[in-house]
């Protein structure tokens, strides 16, 4: 009898241990399942927020970008690497613009053209780099920029261009460029530093364009004038000084055709 009780007790203990282990295993699996489900819901929530943001974008740019990634499954390696590089470059600049500012080496004509085509109200530009402007005057970039300014004017935008030179004799070289600008409706003036009030001659003079009074396109050259960088800035406290600077220079300068 005692042996039978011992066997029963042993079986019960073994069964209990087995049940505990099975229960623990089931609980562990349930926890894993719950965590997996939680992650899936988190992913779904993030995807939902992403799609909500994408829906705010205009036009078919995003679908076209997604469609363009089909090239990643076909074509030569160099084409795929180019697509990767372009996506990374675009993502980097868009990431920077979440902080309302981005920058790139060199003078970015693509940004200049795109901003001009997006303008609704006004374009106010100051150019101190006469050599660069004359060079661009003979290139396709300048022609596309000038055409884009003309289109902005047709949309009702005001476009003002101010050239800054050191001496009166330098203004003569700008006559053809000023004429081309006026022919599409751009208001043009040439500021001669020697004739400006002392207060306007102080500080560094850089090339910049203010779009719609809310965003600045700045071109900054190194001290030797051999290298430059382009910055887009939409911070109001950074743009306002350019707006004020342009107005002061414009009001202190006579029209280029006067």
Task: Give a verbal description of the structure.
This protein is α/β, with parallel strands linked by helices. The protein folds into 2 domains: 61-94; 100-251, Endonuclease Chain A (Endonuclease, Chain A). It is built from 9 helices and 7 strands; from the N terminus they run αααβαβααβαβαβββα. It has helices at 2-54, 61-68, 77-97, 109-118, 130-136, 140-154, 175-183, 198-201, 236-251; strands at 101-105, 122-127, 158-165, 187-192, 207-211, 215-221, 228-233. The chain has a 7-stranded mixed β-sheet with strand order 1-7-6-5-2-3-4, sandwiched between helices. The radius of gyration is 32 Å and the shape is elongated. The N and C termini lie far apart (126 Å).
Question: Keywords, please?
Answer:
258 residues; single chain; alpha/beta; seven-stranded mixed β-sheet
How much strand content do the residues show? 15-25%
* Tally of distinct domains: 2
Share in helix: 55-70%
The rounded distance between the terminal residues' Cα atoms is 126 Å
Strand order of the largest sheet: 1-7-6-5-2-3-4
Radius of gyration: 32 Å
Shape: elongated
The unreliable regions are 4-12, 130-138
**Any guess at the CATH architecture of the largest domain?**
2-Layer Sandwich
Q: What value does the average pLDDT take?
A: 77
Number of contiguous helices: 9
Brief digest:
55% of the residues lie in helices and 17% in strands. The chain has 258 residues and is α/β, with parallel strands linked by helices.
Write the layout of secondary structure elements.
Elements: H1 2-54, H2 61-68, H3 77-97, E1 101-105, H4 109-118, E2 122-127, H5 130-136, H6 140-154, E3 158-165, H7 175-183, E4 187-192, H8 198-201, E5 207-211, E6 215-221, E7 228-233, H9 236-251
Parallel strand pairs: 2-3, 3-4
Antiparallel strand pairs: 1-7, 2-5, 5-6, 6-7
Helix pairs in contact: 4-6
